[in-house]
Design brief:
This protein has about 120 residues and is mostly helical. It contains seven helices and no strands. Helix 5 packs antiparallel against helix 6 and helix 6 crosses helix 7.
Length: about 120
Amino acid sequence: MKTLISIIQPRLEQAQLLPDGLWELLDEQAYLDYRDSADFDAAWIAAYQKLHRDGLKPVEQEQMQEWSRLAFDQVIRASGSGDLAAYIADDIDLIFCAHLLGVEDEFVHWLAECYAEQRLPA
């Protein structure tokens, strides 16, 4: 996971989390429906519930908020969709929180791989 974080973090900080052309090809409603599907939602929630955020130091919590904000801002500027921006910001939060807490989770690892490859989890 550390290797994936080392790929995602600089892209996030350089406003290059996802490629610009991605949004033109994306069927936004179909993707949002996929994200809202029972299987995806259940896997996301299960991963989230493994994280005990009270184990984060205040400086780590602030950094997590900054990374999430960066992701949200980039996606809303590029796509114009608050829903997409919120989902992606939540994914980034989940990925970095798991990393900081040292939590290994197959679903979170898959999310991180997707973003490291500059594609949406699907």
